[in-house]
Structures are given as C-alpha cells and as structure tokens.
Amino acid sequence: MPLQPGSTIGIVGGGQLGRMLALAAARFGYRIAVLDPDSGCPASQVANTTVVGPYDDEACLKRLASLSDVVTYEFENVAVAPLRRALGETPLSPPAEALEVSQDRVVEKAFLNGIGVATADWRAIDAVEELGHALLELGGDCILKTRRFGYDGKGQARINAQTTFTDAFEAIGSAPAILEKKVPFSFEMSVVAARGRGGEIAAFDPAENVHTLGILKTSTVPGKVTQELAASAMHVAAKILTHLNYVGVIGVEFFVGRDGALLVNEIAPRVHNSGHWTEAACLVSQFEQHIRAVAGLPLASPERHFDCVMENLIGDDVGRFSGLVTEPRSLLHLYGKAETRRGRKMGHVTRITPRSSGV
Ligand code: ADP
Ligand code: MG
User: Fold this and answer.
1) Helix 80-87 to helix 58-67 angle, to the nearest 10 degrees?
2) pLDDT value for 162
3) First-to-last CA distance in the chain?
4) Where are any strands of DSSP class E within 13-118?
5) What percent of the chain shows pLDDT beyond 70?
6) Does 152 show up as a binding residue in the annotation?
7) pLDDT per residue over 57-87, tens digit each?
8) CB 120 near ligand 1, within 6 Å
9) Residue 195 in contact with residue 94, Cβ under 8 Å?
10) Residue 153: band (very low, low, confident or very high) from pLDDT cuts 50, 70, 90
11) Residue range 151-171: average pLDDT?
C-alpha cells in the first residue's frame, strides 16, 4: 500500500538534502519528522516535527521511528546498529545494507568489485607500516582516504614515493584507511537514479561534475557526457541498485578515463548534490523521485527538458544573492543556514538553456 497523504516520513539528518526532501514531500501532503542535533537545522525550518539529538542515539531514533510511517536518511554515516534496534516495525528505505556498504570505503569498493563494477585499484590500510608496500604495489600517485566519515574531500591526503608516510597518515587522523590509485581522469560524472518498491528503475541523465578543493562546484548536463557513456553509466547504476535491493534515489560518482573507460568513484545512498539540477530541468526532481520511491508510489519519468548548469554556492558565494535572483533563466535555492562558513554549502543555482540534441 502506498503511503497516503497525511502520513509521516521520518528523515535521519536535517541538512539541505533533508530540507529539499521535506519540501518535495509536502506537495503530496506528507508530514515530515526530522532527527538532527541542531534544532535550527535547514530541514527543521520546513519540517512538521524535529527530534533534537544525535543521529546514533537509540532513544532519539526510536522517537523518530514512532512518529513515522517510513524512515529514510539524508546522509550515509548513520550508525546502523542503533538504527536497526530503534526501527521496530517501521520500514527503512533505502535499506540498511546500503548504509553498511557506502559508509566504509573498503566495504564499498569490495562490494562494487564483487558485482563486476570497476573502481580505482585500492588497498586497505590499517596501520602506517602497511603504506610503503601498498604504494609499491599500486605504483605512482595515490590518495589516502579514511575508510569512514569522509565528505567534500575531507579525510584525504595525496601520497607518492616522496611523501613521509607518518605525516600523511597523521593528516587523515591516523584512522583506518584505504589507499587508492590516483585516476588520471578526463572528467568526472555522476548518475542519480531511483528504484521503486516494485524494482522499477528510472535514471536521470548523467551530469559532468567539476570539483574545486574536493567540493562539487558545478554539474553540467549533458556537458561532456556522450550517449554511449550515459548508457554505460546508467547500466552500472541499475546493477548497483538491483544488487542492493534498493528503494529510493542513489548517487553514483564516476571517473571517465581519457580512453572513455568508466570507473566508479563512490556511491551515495541518498539524493545527491550532483542531482540538484533536476528541480529546474526535469518534470520531477530527484527529491520528489526519492519521496515517491520510499512512499511506495510509482516513479515519475526522469526526462529532461533543458540543458543546464548547476553551480554550488559555497561560503561567501551566497552574498551574490541580489544578483542571482535577478537572473531570468535560473532557479535559485538557498538552504537557510544561519552562519556562512568557508567551504560550507549555502545554496545552489541552476541555469537553464534550451535542450540540445545531445544525450
Ligand atoms: P568525498 O566523499 O569527499 O566526495 P571522493 O572520494 O568522492 O570523496 O573524493 C572527492 C574528490 O576527490 C573526487 O570527486 C575527485 O575529484 C577526487 N578524487 C578522489 N579519489 C580520487 C582518485 N582515486 N583519483 C583521482 N581523483 C580522486
Ligand atoms: Mg565524492
């Protein structure tokens, strides 16, 4: 039975992704309960109820579950054990397995390789003494990343034969890590795709992504993405969704090699920053698509009506508000964050142009 209007969707995490999910849910008459440690978080400003507390607090998770007909999440670092215990009979979408796979870079790469999806070459690193041997095996330039809790390029260090290993390991907090071969990619792209309760899959067109200092700066559709690349990437995304018995929206990040080869960088079991453009260029946004999936409604067509460029407004960029709102063919979305900080995502703007024949 699909969720009826008036039902409540619980969201673990109250950042901008939770906020945009809540706005989409409201259009179907769903109520939203959010769990976040900050009572003034972006999602709380548009939610019906906010449970204020840590994401891994079982009592808080229980309270969220008791308020909700279905629970979802807006970030992948939710502690799985207390969440599972707290849920009781309340369904969780996407499934907990998607959290387990995506919140640990070693588990994630092993899962992807295990289902035949190519990634950068990698080695698990538990102690600094293992770095020398692993670097020798992988060869050349590598990137050391914490296994868990990394985002926006945080918890990463470049590393090569000239690097002092103890410095690099300390730079990432001496935490369990993964060493990845640096991919000499031609460009980065991502697919945001959804799987419904009945197993149907709908993928939005892939975006070409540009990162600055590890943070997404722009997503361009179609950008450099050819029809052939788009088809391969969507095939990979569908494979991942099916293997995880997934329900909801997923973001799959890719490196495109100079020879056109596709490697998956990482997966995010949630709506994804590189899919924000969908609210301006598609009939249905990634946020509504996720709400549809977790509510057990049919997925909507992901067709795209415009070409577009989504630009993240990071830190002081948000000060350009007065200019941005005067642009006639752009959609501006701000997140209601009280404090502007360097490197903090404050909003985004999507500029549309007529659709080219491309993808
Ligand atoms: P995060 O969780 O912070 O998004 P990512 O693993 O996606 O972490 O890394 C952030 C960015 O750093 C990537 O989008 C890419 O630009 C760069 N990067 C990460 N891993 C590699 C790699 N193995 N080779 C080349 N660039 C990489
Ligand atoms: Mg990433």
Assistant:
1) 40
2) 87
3) 35
4) 31-36, 49-52, 70-73
5) 99
6) yes
7) 999 999 999 999 999 999 999 999 999 999 9
8) yes
9) no
10) confident
11) 90
- Residue 245 annotated as lining a ligand binding site: no
- Helix or strand (DSSP H, E) at 21: helix 16-26
Distance in angstroms (rounded) separating the CA atoms of residues 350 and 51: 32
Given ligand 1 and candidates 182, 265, 274, which is best to mutate, with the most ligand atoms within 8 Å of its CB? 265
Measured from the alpha carbon of residue 138, the closest ligand is 1
DSSP helix/strand/coil, 288: helix
Q: Torsion-angle region of residue 155: left (phi > 0), alpha (psi -120 to 50) or beta?
A: left
For 220, residues 6+ apart whose C-beta sits below 8 A from its C-beta are: 207, 208, 209, 210, 308, 309, 310
Contact between residue 256 and residue 189 where contact means Cβ atoms under 8 Å apart:
yes
Tokens 């029809």 correspond to what residue? 227
DSSP 3-state of 93 = coil
Q: Which atom of ligand 1 is nearest to the CA of 152?
A: 3
Helix axes 16-26, 286-294, angle to 10 degrees: 70
Predicted local distance difference test score (pLDDT) of residue 359: 57
pLDDT of 264 above 80:
yes
Secondary structure of 142-153 as H, E, C letters: EEEEECCCCCCC
pLDDT tens-digit map of 236-262: 999 999 999 999 999 999 999 999 999
Pairing of strands 142-146, 177-181: antiparallel
Nearest ligand 1 atom, CA 209: 14
**What are the DSSP calls for 178-212, one per residue?**
EEEEPP--SEEEEEEEEE-TTS-EEEPPPEEEEEE
